[in-house]
């Protein structure tokens, strides 16, 4: 793994480590003011740091409902194009709900775009989608 790959993956892991512990501030902390985000649970793109902050804040409400949360970052790949770095990986979230057995809570396809300003990398775009979602037909 290159130094850049370690840096970008480390940046992402810093946010994921906080997210999995129900601390939503990890992603806003690594994001640029103009960050954009596509979330599979929303109809529209989220534009800007303030909007992202409002969207991730409710994650705190799940603290205590899921115990022993953990994640697995699978096959991260970083591609650099000048002052832009693209990180793609698969993410699996695990945890115990209501004291039950550990279960897979979600599987994600993850894309993160970071831009370098001086010596600092900031998240400028994030895109999550479910891995092999169970799509149900919509009623007209």
Unreliable sequence segments: none
How many beta-strand segments? 6
How is the largest sheet built, in terms of strand order? Answer: 2-1-6-5-4-3
The major sheet is characterized as: 6 strands, mixed
- Silhouette: globular
Give, in order, the helices and strands. HHEEHEEEE
Arithmetic mean pLDDT:
92
The chain-level structural class is alpha+beta
- Measured between the Cα atoms of the first and last residue, the distance is 49 Å
What gyration radius follows from the Cα positions, in whole Å? 16 Å
Into which percent range does the helicity of residues fall? Answer: 10-25%
Number of DSSP helices? 3
Identify the quaternary structure here: single chain
Strand portion, in percent? over 45%
Essential attributes:
globular; alpha+beta; 6-stranded mixed sheet; 140 residues
Structure description:
The structure is a single chain. The protein is an alpha+beta fold and 140 residues long. 22% of the residues lie in helices and 47% in strands. The protein contains three helices and six strands; from the N terminus they run H-H-E-E-H-E-E-E-E. It has a six-stranded mixed sheet with strand order 2-1-6-5-4-3. A hairpin with a 7-residue loop joins strand 1 and strand 2. The longest helix is centred in the N-terminal third of the chain and has 18 residues. The radius of gyration is 16 Å and the shape is globular.
Short description:
The chain has three helices and six strands, in the order H-H-E-E-H-E-E-E-E. With 140 residues, it is an alpha+beta fold. It has a six-stranded mixed sheet with strand order 2-1-6-5-4-3.
